[in-house]
Amino acid sequence: MRVRARRILEAIPEGDRPEAVVLMNGTSALFDSTFRYVSGVTSGGYGGCAAVIRPGEATALVVSEMEAESAAAASECEILPYKTREARQQILGTLLGGLRRIGLNAPAITWESVRALQSAAPDADFRDVSAAVTAARVVKDAQEIDLIRRACAITSEVAAEIPAMLREGVTEAEVSAGVARAIQDRGGSNAFSTIVGFGKNGSEPHYSPGDVPLRPGDLVLVDFGAKRDHYCSDITRMYLYGRATKEQRRMFDVVHDAQVEAVAMSRPGTPARDVHRHVTHRIDETEFAGRFIHGLGHSIGLDVHDGGGYSDASELVLEPGMVLTVEPGVYVSGVGGVRVEDTILVTDGTPEILTPVTKALVEVPA
Length: 366
What we know:
Number of domains: 2
Oligomer: single chain
Order of helices and strands: HEHEEHEHEHEHHHEEEEEEHHEEEEEEEE
Number of helices: 10
CATH topology of the largest domain: Creatine Amidinohydrolase
Strand content: 15-25%
Distance between the termini: 52 Å
Shape: elongated
Number of strands: 20
Largest sheet: 6 strands, mixed
Strand order of the largest sheet: 4-3-2-1-5-6
CATH class of the largest domain: Alpha Beta
Low-confidence stretches: none
């Protein structure tokens, strides 16, 4: 974990490097996953706790007494427990009180936490170092890749079971619940809210499943992910209840072929925006021009959207160890949508697909 903390510091230009970087959690719903990234903790709530990264010193974890034991068991960091908020402030003051430059992961910190840090270090200049956090986290180490593989294995197994869930009259919400149960049966949890769209509902990329029943002829879009040991996976697969029409098959083939090309292009040294632009151009050459309406994919790890990804404005250049989704789609209002998505690992050569379950359009007899 010391290597991870050092990676964050080294990603900050030397002249701008602060005397400390503080990663501070709010409530459980406002948890900075980079706290887990640098500490290695695997259990506990850690609300209001902080990780203080200091050049040349062990990272300090300022944690409540409730989490001190689990933190000490899981982390090589210096553990500084507190019983009350006042005691926490005293510890933060000891760590930070004399410092002039302190870095924060601004997108993941609450105003309440900022005020607490300002009180602990009243003379400090606080600056956003989130770009360095993203740069450090976007390249995964061997342990992270192994954990993502486990999450992806669950996802692939569950995707293979989805055809058995599709029967006339089953609702989108029931399929979503079936996916959740299948993930839980394998020791995982939902990485995000599962998307299940029947028929025309597939045209909304972030659709929420409802009480819509499945009917013969419906395209079925299922976008879901498993989380295992805090690491995420993400996949989208397409199914057809009955036999695909020529138009449905054409829509699927355009997206599928573009996705295969995008995966093949995802090699070291390739700008992510070039891959996105290639796919956009590829789709825009077809009758579905303008129907690809989002970024091609995103980094994934402790968070589903783990910083960086494929888009027209992306400055990311692919490197070995990056784990990303590749998910082109075509969406036609009133008709439906098609998206094909894999989680992939950028290697020294050919990209590795971590979600290898078939991505063909699976026809389920009606």
